Amino acid sequence: MTRVVIADDQLLVRTGFRMILTADGIDVVGEATTGAEAVDAVRRTRPDVVLMDIRMPELDGLEATRRILTGAPGEPRVVILTTFDLDHYVYAALSAGASGFLLKDVTPEHLVSAIRMVRAGDALLAPTITRRLVERFAHRDTGVVHRDLASLTPRELEVLRLLAQGLSNAELAARLHLSEATVKTHVARILAKLDLRDRVQAVIVAYETGLVSPTAPA
């Protein structure tokens, strides 16, 4: 059973999410109203996924995400909760290692699907939305570590470039005339070589290294 911690300072948000998740067989093992409580709850309950609000008292969701994702074995996946889909804090959280983000008005079906997707090891990546987010805020966070892409093969660079443009595995396979299994292998190798958690971080690195150039925001 998937184990989840919900961190949000609004009781109604936590209650609503807990009802949706438990009704679908997902175990909510902890709740938190501050970032500090979220860090403690994760250490106590060892969940698979954390739903993390950005704006919370005492310790915001960004710093809480950084503290949770320390690189230790068995660390959970963090999904950022936000009211606005182009919040610069969300970009910073993705850079810190979060696996994606959800708007707080997400439908119950999408919430459950997102939790299971992240639990299975994929990134919660709505490609065009995440790409738009990265395009708007890339190069503004000086804390981002720029990675050397020299370890990637020409084919892997091509896959990363297209991935950063928002293409799914199926679309990548069609564009490159490869099987989806081969595309998945390329993506896995890219993540391993660059020491990245998931596709979201790969998109960020593609922009931060200049492999893909951000466009001007609308």
From TrEMBL:
Residues 3-119 form the Response regulatory domain. Gene3D superfamilies: 3.40.50.2300. Transmembrane segments: none annotated. SUPFAM superfamilies: CheY-like (SSF52172). CDD domains: LuxR_C_like (cd06170), REC_NarL-like (cd17535). Keywords: DNA-binding, Phosphoprotein, Transcription, Transcription regulation. GO terms for biological process: phosphorelay signal transduction system; regulation of DNA-templated transcription. Residues 145-210 form the HTH luxR-type domain. Pfam families: GerE, Response_reg. It comes from the Bacteria. The modification 4-aspartylphosphate is found at D53. GO terms for molecular function: DNA binding. This is Two-component system, response regulator of the LuxR family.
